[in-house]
Amino acid sequence: MNKTQALQYIINAMSLRTPQEKSLVFFADYLESNAGNKVLGRLKRENRGNVNNIEIMTKEYAQTVPELHQFQAFERTFPAYTFALATGVGKTRLMGAFVAYLYLVYEIQHFMLVAPGNTIYRKLVDDFSKASNPKYVFRGIKEININTTRIITKDNYQQNQATSGLFGNQIQINIFNVQQFAQKDIEQEKGITKFSETLGESYFEYLKSLNDLVVLLDESHHYHADAAMGSLDRIDPLFGLEFTATPYIATMTTRINTEPTLKKNILYTYNLGDAIRDGYVKDPWIGTEADVDFSQWDSESIETDARKLQLAAFFHERAKVALKEYALQNNKPEVKPVMLVVAKDTAHASLLRALIDNDDFRGGTYKGKVIEVHTKTKGEEADETIEKLISLEHPDNIVEIVIHVNMLKEGWDVTNIYTIAPIRSSASEILTEQTIGRGLRLPYGERTGNKNVDRVMIVAHDNYAKVIEGARKSKLIQPSNIERVSAQDTKLVKEVVEVQSAFVASIQEKIKANSSIMQEIEAQAAKAVSPVISEDTPEDVKAATIQSKTDEIVENLAKQEASRLSFAEYHQHKKIDQGLPESWQEGTLFSNLSDPTKKELENIGRVSGQTIEVQNIPIPRLMLTPHYGELIIEDFNLDTKRLSRYATETSILEERLQGS
Q1: 171/99 Cα distance (integer angstroms)
Q2: Are 399 and 370 a contacting pair, CB within 8 Å?
Q3: Could you tell me the pTM of the whole model?
Q4: pLDDT of 65 above 90
């Protein structure tokens, strides 16, 4: 497939956004340049070696394309290019687009995706291997599917070693996290560097032997300067593509409050300001209390914190109402908003949780719905922390408020953060990309047109003048996107309530009154919510989560029973067979209920149905049929003798009476 056909095919099939499309097109054009031809020439092993000449040619080419002017150097022993795309734009889909293009145009078959940790690693495996996944990257690309592609991971690479020669015509996508390339493992010949008798070499050496291996580095800023990158230099791939929203190099000598070093191999940038203006992410707003100067208050006082949290809770509740109304009105899945509270330190975080998780704070609205999450180490513990934060999107997760210390980093972006409250921080500190970026992802994938559904509120605690001044200096916040709320408004509590019919409510009460049924339902609820509960989840949060799921199951079961019952069955005194209830069919939550419990539910349904006539007034169905009498058509002859004749235009003669 030629370049033009492939670009049009991929852009349309994968529905690429403009910045994704530009990234792909710019790189496709680059590969056809003299510098790009030199890079592709590395497909022949004898052309590997020093890349200084290619680097110089690439820099010269980049100066001819305005959007690529930032490129300075590869920074690796192999050609490497960074695509710096803002959070929420879709870096993973872009990675898939690059794989598809390189395969369709240049028949490159070997790829390796590298992730910074286990959480992002598992996400990449799901997005690249599971066709049923809503975020499957190759949907629409018929040439890349489960039959033409092998996904090789840290869990199955040893099996791939034994069968690699049997599938030579397949695309191979290796997915590892950066820990697989740790220098100590390579020196000790562990993991992928361990010798395999079946293959006759280690998997590391196998990767190194591939002439067309292209490496794609996700969130590369996390490990760009890591020792593990030296291992990738030893593999010496054809070239590397790096993807990040933060194109900076973090080093051990980087100091607080100093500007980080910008990467030199940036080929294309699409920053957060562009993404906000183009509508790919939420619209950030600043919220502050009207006519209040918080500097007059004791900044270290928990009472001051409480007032700030009341303001944050107001914005959170407003978002909750807006999201529920939007879901009901547009038949969309309901999104549960989350508020992120940033504390000063761990002791401060504990005080804030005690304040919020209390009957005295907004009537106990958030009891059992608040957690603290702290990151003290790197590696597995950090991954567990990120997993806990990502689970906030799970529909069974009832947590509404997360309190964290300095967790304003990448890697755990979720779509349902709607309020960010950096307590004890000034306006100048909160109007940063690190703060705002945590809550910018759109839950429905695009803006809805509903202002409260499409925006994230960042709570400021300085007076209005200081907030305005900070917004004017910010590249992300418009001065018009500042909202002042009165102290009286912050105390208002609004709620959207879906009222059940008396019939459904009566079935619910009968189910709740049956101890044997409730015992099984509670067991099912505990099992269902296990993915969002960990060992360190507070006991009150565990109990509230299980209770919420139990209530949901009871409500759904009552609705299902009510929908099966027919008024005709009782008014016409005949049995109507509804068949097996949908809620009991294989694969559903209720299919695991015991037969005695199902029998009890049938009895509840039968008894409830018998009360229909008592609780409802039957209204007869009336049919109105218009009646005009009998219609008769009689034959007759029309007498035209009585009809008068009138002159027509064609029978009138015109003559001029006056001569010229």
Answers
A1: 9
A2: yes
A3: 0.77
A4: yes
